[in-house]
Amino acid sequence: MQIKKPQPFTFEEGDRAVLLLHGFTGHTADVRMLGRFLQKKGYTTHAPIYRGHGKAPEDLIGVSAIEWWEDVQVAFRELKDMGYQKIAVAGLSLGGVLGLKLAYSEAIKGIIPMCTPMFFDNETQLTKGFEIFSKQYKEVEGKDQETINQEVKELVDHSPELFNQLGDLITDVKNNIDTIYTPTFVVQAKDDQMINMDSANYIYDNVESEIKDIKWYKDAGHAITLGPKKEEVHEDIYQFLESLDWS
Length: 247
Hints:
Elements lengths: L8 E3 L4 E6 L7 H12 L3 E4 L9 H5 L3 H17 L4 E7 L1 H10 L7 E4 L7 H19 L4 H13 L2 H17 L7 E6 L8 H9 L5 E6 L12 H14 L4
Parallel strand pairs: 2-3, 2-4, 4-5, 5-6, 6-7
Antiparallel strand pairs: 1-3
Helix pairs in contact: 3-4, 4-7, 5-6
């Protein structure tokens, strides 16, 4: 079965722009509903797809975390080149990590990390997510269970370097959190099974911005932008954006 490949999106509206960053193994579907919601509220939204994402799990093995950071920088410059000078950033999971890195690397209006890891656990967290993604992808391809199990095992066996780089990225951002002076809104699901939820408090406690907030969402899982609390998350993000100084 041929699987339709997702695409980046740009929903143009007002002169205020929000760069939306998806999670690890995800793609623009992670943030598309948020993008449309903010567009209706007068914001331009732009979402890239990092290299290796939106494709087969085998494509992820051949790329690096450094390339994902480069992809985010390119997306930020694309918004600038389109004429948008007022830019905020919202990112889910890995997207939150990359967004926080952007917050201490560029001048942005605000940063919204959602269910964003600060403590790397190779065995029990992100590796598990990669396995689930790989199995689901191969089920959609129509492969039998024995083939799926064998191919997923081979993928995991060949993925240590990718996860080492991912761990280095998370640790690097964690060590630089106290250099962020950008207004920050930390979004965290209370039923997040993918990351160490102490990450949310770590981000909130260590960013140096005088303008910061944190909210925990009951009955919400890791993919908070897609789950049952998505409308509440959308509205809270909009209210945070409206509170920023866009001058």
